[in-house]
Amino acid sequence: MTTPTPIYNNTEIRSIERLTASPLMERAGLAAAEIARDRLLTKEINAVLVLAGPGNNGGDAFVVARYLKSWWLNVTLVFSGERENLPDDAKHALDKWLSAGGEILTEMPENKIWGAVIDGLFGIGLDRDLVGKNLALVNTVNLMRLPVLALDVPSGLGSDTGNCHGATVRATMTVTFIGLKPGLFTRFGPDYCGEIILCKLDLDPSSLVTPHAWKLDRPYAQKLLPPPRPSDSHKGMFGSVGVIGGATGMVGAAFLAGTAALKLGAGRVYLGLMAVDPPVTSADQPELMLRPVHELFKLAHLSCLIVGPGLGMQPDAHFWLSNALESEMPLVLDADALNLIAVHPELASLLRARTAASVLTPHVAEAARLLGTDSSNLQHDRMAAAAELAKRFNCYTVLKGVGSICTFPDGRSYLNTSGNPGLSSAGTGDVLSGIIGAFLAQGLDAGNALLLAVHLHGAAADSLLERYGGPVGMTASEITDAARGLLNRWLH
Predict the structure, then answer these.
(1) Distance between CA atoms of 414 and 387, rounded to whole angstroms?
(2) In sequence order, what are the residues at sequence separation of 6 or more whose Cβ sits closer than 8 angstroms to the Cβ of residue 46?
(3) In this structure, is residue 216 part of a structural domain?
């Protein structure tokens, strides 16, 4: 099976660096210089602006500048730090730049024309907002609208969190060293990183530090697919999904989840609607079977339950969620199921005590309620929040958003790379719950069902982005149909 690409936080990267005998700055600078030469610069304009900061990221920039100069490019280097305060490796790189005939400027020159910018101001060590000269340099670069190659991470971006520290360089490409970082994929990272190029610098990082997070991309997601269907297939081979939700005024949510489960391959789907007199019948989606909620718990062949889409917060919703949590079926919990767990400690206790798999699918506000915090605080460290959800509730969880984070009860995390703003519309979360349920019904374990569903869900939105030329107006029902088409293509 294809092994997913590891992702490392700052502490792990520092440990790898300490365990590596040979110096890495020269290798990193050469790798970045080759990318700049081959990918960014043109014969017409072969002048490049290099920004070097006060730490080791600046040292990488000195090495890049030296190599570019040796290849007869016109290099302007602006240094925002103080020589005496540089780390030893960076100081040595600066000395070699000067020995090669390079010059150092402390201010941005006027009336110069460059073909590209190398951003070496700040790397993974930044933990504060940019101020003064560095803030001005970042803002100036962003106004230039030139191709930008960022070294390790764009300056101003939190490499663990994806947060912006005051301002962030908007890069065309980011060459990241040793291993991938979480902030490249979540929060604001995708808006600022551009194309991400990994240079391991001839290291095998996973042999030095055990990774705990990985990249969830299409090659890995496609390795999680259920097997192709044999010719003598029948509906009983692909499981049965029950959906509990659809209170008055919210019946559509349950239908979206059930339809997604049906169209993504579940053999049978039952809807247990909370509405007393729902304004729908089986004719609205004749393949879905409508049942009173209590009957779902009597179906011995049911493979899993999806609880929450349109569930409501009334006492009957609490009652049926409690019954589901006490069952031995795998559960997918979304929307009001999560809100009920957040405000009723007894439901949270039932969830923690479950031995069957539980999959939680919160958006940021729901996750904040579950953790007893607010959305802003949670977004400050999405990786930590996802890990705490999985640990606290003994569950598989996806913290939805840019770079959705899937975390398992054992602490493993996966950052998803598919999806776009078109998913920011009503009902797309219900569809995701239905897709997860469909894969559980088809026999995937909870972790693989979650990973495959999350990536497929985003990939479906990406395919619609191409079809419609943008994300505006993308609907949940369209996501379901696009996901079905992709799944069939991936299976063949």
Answers:
(1) 11
(2) 72, 73, 74, 115
(3) no
Angle at 198 between CA 449 and CA 53, to 5 degrees: 125
In sequence order, which ranges of 71-211 are alpha helices (DSSP H)?
Answer: 88-99, 132-144, 189-193, 205-208
394 and 274, same domain (yes or no) = yes
Q: Could you give the C-alpha distances from 152 to 17, 48, 83, 384, in angstroms and in order?
A: 14, 18, 21, 22
Instruction: Read off the CATH number of the domain in which 349 is found.
Output: 3.40.1190.20
**Residue closest to 130 by CA, chosen among 146, 144, 119, 114:** 119
For residue 146, give its domain range: 6-211
Residue 443 lies in a domain: yes
Domain-located, residue 207: yes
For the record, the structure tokens of 454 come out as 């999350």
CA–CA dist 375, 377 (Å, integer): 6
Number of structural domains the chain divides into:
2
pTM as predicted: 0.96
**Cβ atoms of 433 and 257 closer than 8 Å:** yes
Residue 396: name the closest of 435, 432, 450, 436 by CA. Answer: 450
* Calpha distance 376→166 (Å, rounded): 16
For the record, the structure tokens of 70 come out as 């040796």
Nearest to 464 by CA among 435, 422, 426, 416: 422
Residue pLDDT tens, the chain, 492 long: 578 999 999 999 999 999 997 789 999 999 999 999 999 988 788 899 999 999 999 999 999 999 999 999 999 999 999 999 999 999 999 999 999 999 999 999 998 999 999 999 999 989 899 999 999 999 999 999 999 999 999 999 999 999 999 999 999 999 999 999 999 999 999 999 999 999 999 999 999 999 999 999 999 999 999 999 999 999 999 999 999 999 999 999 999 999 999 999 999 999 999 988 776 655 567 899 999 999 999 999 999 999 999 999 999 999 999 999 999 999 999 999 999 999 999 999 999 999 999 999 999 999 999 999 999 999 999 999 999 999 999 999 999 999 999 999 999 999 999 999 999 999 999 999 999 999 999 999 999 999 999 999 999 999 999 899 999 999 999 999 999 999 999 998
Strand ranges of the sheet holding 6-7, from the earlier edge strand across to the other edge: 6-7, 213-216, 413-416, 405-407, 396-399, 358-360, 331-333, 304-307, 240-245, 268-273, 289-291
How many Å apart are CA 315 and CA 333, to the nearest integer?
A: 17
72 three-state secondary structure? coil
